[in-house]
Amino acid sequence: MRGPIYEPRGAAREYAELALNIYTGCTHGCSYCYAPQILRRSREAFAACVCPREGLLFALERQLANGDFGGRTVHLCFTCDPYPRDVDHTRTREVILLLKDAGCHVQILTKNPTAALLDLDLLDGSDTVGTTVTGGGPFFEPGSPAESRRLDALMRVKRLGIGTWVSCEPILDASAVLRAVEKCDFVARWSFGKLNHAKASADWGAIGKEIESTCRQLGRSYVIKDSLRKEMEETRW
Question: Where are the domains of the chain?
């Protein structure tokens, strides 16, 4: 598959069968972010140089014309945020326009969903807007809007008839994540994953089981990612 749309591998594949990365970096500065390592860039360079990928729109338009992407879901984004802070988001809007014109469904994941509200006129009931809730706070996510603001924006997304979802990966504060699950009945789908790219002393099996029990009790739609599920299967209560 040649072009900016690609098929994710590994744990990323659990989120979507197709994905597209719009920008060269991200300004949110999350300490647990794996993208700089994957892109072989320092964290400083990754945060300092954030601009649309060169030639993206031309390449995307050509790829969509040459392939059958109608009815398929494209995830935005994995190695960047589709709405980075203090960056012009025009390119994101242009990408969404091309995807929707080609009959694609769009799955957005952003720590800045308030900015995504400006593009909801391009989306429909087959699309979803999601945000990340880790419970980590500003120490781990210094450039990101507070999680309370992210969830407030997601509530507005829901009211406008667009699907909502939350990625709780990595779980940094399980109690904060559980509070969000209990409070936010407007979230249509939850996804939970452990911290995989750094050392952590957490009892992941116990955390996963408590989260799953809470989701079942509240009737939440959820997905436990494979690495966390494995820890749960190896833990006995």
Answer: 10-233
Residues in the chain: 237
Asked whether the CA dihedral 96, 99, 105, 111 is positive or negative, the reply is negative
CATH code of the region 10-233: 3.20.20.70
pLDDT tens digit string along 75-90? 999 999 999 999 999 9
- The DSSP letter of residue 53 is P
pLDDT, tens only, 1-33? 689 999 999 888 999 999 999 999 999 999 999
Please return the burial class of 6, using the count of CB atoms within 10 Å of its CB with bins 0-12, 13-18 and 19+: middle
**Cβ burial, residue 217 (10 Å; 0-12/13-18/19+):** exposed
* Percent helix, strand and coil across the chain, each to the nearest 5: 40, 15, 45
